[in-house]
Structure formats: C-alpha cells, structure tokens
Amino acid sequence: MAFPKDLLAEHEKVVFDIRPHWLAALPSLLWTLVLAGAWAGGYSLAKATFDDPTVAQNVVAVVVLIAWVGLALVPFLRWRFTMFVLTSDRLITRSGVLAKHSKEIPLERINDVAFSQSVLERALGAGDLMIESAGERGQTVISNVRKPEEMQLLIYKESEENSNRMFRGGADPARPGDSVVEQIEALGRLKEQGVLSAAEFEAKKKELLDRL
Questions:
Q1: Where are the domains of the chain?
Q2: pLDDT, tens digit (0-9, with 9 covering 90-100), for 96-145
Q3: Shortest CA distance to 155 belongs to which of 100, 107, 212?
Q4: How far is Cα 57 from Cα 42, in angstroms, rounded to an integer?
Q5: Cβ within 8 Å of residue 71, ≥6 positions away
Q6: CA 196 to CA 212: how far, in whole Å?
Q7: CA angle, 152 as apex, 149 and 155 as ends, to 5°?
Q8: Which of 4, 58, 95, 210 has most Cβ atoms within 10 angstroms of its Cβ?
C-alpha cells in the first residue's frame, strides 16, 4: 500500500516509501507455528482423554484462535500497515489499521540522523534510525528500517537539496509558525552544512531580527 498521493503538496515528490523490514513480522510467523502445534497437541490430547472430545477440542480451538489473533495477527497487521516515507519536504511515519497515526518531521528541522544495528540485523539488512530534530520533538526512533545506512544517506541528501531549494528560491528556513529563534537556529545549521556563507547567514539573521 503506497503513500496516498493526495496527501502530497503540489511540488512535493516521494523519495522512498517502504514498510518495516520483514524481521519485524517474523514473530507473527513463529507464533503461528507454535500455536498450530499447540492446537494439534491439544486436539490429540482431548481425543485420547475424553470419550466425546468434541467440547474439549472446541475449547482448545477457541483458546488457540484468541491467542493467534493477539500474538500473531494483530502484530502482522501493524507491520503491514506501517509506512516509512521520505518526501522532498518531510520525513513521515504512518501506522494503524483502522485508526491512523502519523508523525512528520520537516527536513529543515532535522539536525542529525544516526543508525544502529545488532550483528543479526546487519546480516539481514535491518536496523534502527535515530532522528534528532529541532523543537519539541527531540529524538525520534524508527525501528526495523530496511538498509538503515542507505536510508540515512538518502535523508541527508534530500535535506541538503531541500535547503538549497529553499534558499536559492528566497524562502525562509522554517515554516510560518516557527519563532525567530528557531529560524535563526535553522540558518545556523545551514551555515554549518555549507549551504550558506557567513555573509548570507548574517544578512538573513539581520532580516529576521529586523522583523521584531
């Protein structure tokens, strides 16, 4: 299921749209196998224990079904309906089967992107991304990302291109609701990244302060 195109701005494009690594869905498969074995064992035990095992077998089937829904089906659907999306403007995580939950981080707010992998995750091409962003969000952890090192580089690349587009087009480094302090902080990050020269930084900073 792709990210809905009607949620994109007119100029916005999708860089990548991926689901969490299949490693996150592995517990659902393992629980399915375990519960299938439990059902078969309970079915056989009831048949060997009772003259009329129908009731006992039905009880086993209901218990196993309830356990399967909670331990395997729900986590699988959560994996199936979780998306990790990078666009030319923002980083988005969406989840939820019926009720949807979404978190967005504008690219200009991202300060740092790091990733971590265990030995097993590195062998399988999975890992976690840690996104440091300005404002109240702080650090956001995105788990079970496919090829996290590649995703890290793509986010850096798109953030830099986003900054270049904004400043070559004369736009402010933050959205209209940002405070002057936040905008100056964003300017400072762009200066550190080499997008702005010292003179451009001072000129833009002065322009912002003159608005007060």
A1: 24-79, 172-212
A2: 877 778 888 888 788 888 999 999 889 999 999 999 887 655 788 888 99
A3: 107
A4: 7
A5: 28, 31, 35
A6: 23
A7: 155
A8: 95
